[in-house]
Design goal:
31% of the residues lie in helices and 27% in strands. The protein is an alpha+beta fold and 140 residues long.
């Protein structure tokens, strides 16, 4: 199956197919977020209830500095591991930054914004994916 990616920041990169399963990318980035001290990390399989993506990864940052650090880390890990370049929305926001990988959408929230928007409640019909706990993860 794999994941479709968007052109990167350089003209040489074209819209192309990368051979990574969206679920594997979701688990990879969830682990990276947990390693980087994100809290309340939640992965949701929305494929059966959505036509625009297969997975959501939702996470919380305890402060603005961590929020932007998480965005940078996830973007860098996806690029370094899989050659992915991501569309980012709200990059300057202090509350909610969205990373759009096509089949996977990552929502990076402040605690206040996560409580306000309650995406997990809106997508309560979607299946949750079990993630490792921080103690189960070896540092990267």
């Amino acid at each position: 199956m794999g994941i479709e990616i968007y052109p990167g920041p350089t003209p040489q990169l074209q819209h192309r197919h990368i051979d990574v399963e969206p679920r594997d990318l979701t688990l990879f980035l969830a682990t990276a977020a947990i390693e980087k001290s994100a809290s309340d990390v939640l992965a949701i399989d929305i494929g059966d209830v959505s036509t625009f993506a297969s997975y959501f990864l939702i996470l919380t940052a305890s402060n603005t500095r961590l929020l932007h650090s998480l965005v940078d880390e996830l973007r860098d890990r996806a690029r370094d591991e899989y050659g992915l370049h991501v569309r980012v929305e709200g990059e300057r926001s202090e509350e909610w930054v969205l990373l759009d990988f096509g089949s996977l959408i990552v929502h990076c929230f402040s605690a206040e914004a996560r409580e306000f928007y309650q995406l997990e409640r809106l997508w309560s019909d979607a299946a949750r994916i079990e993630l490792p706990t921080p103690s189960e993860i070896q540092p990267h």
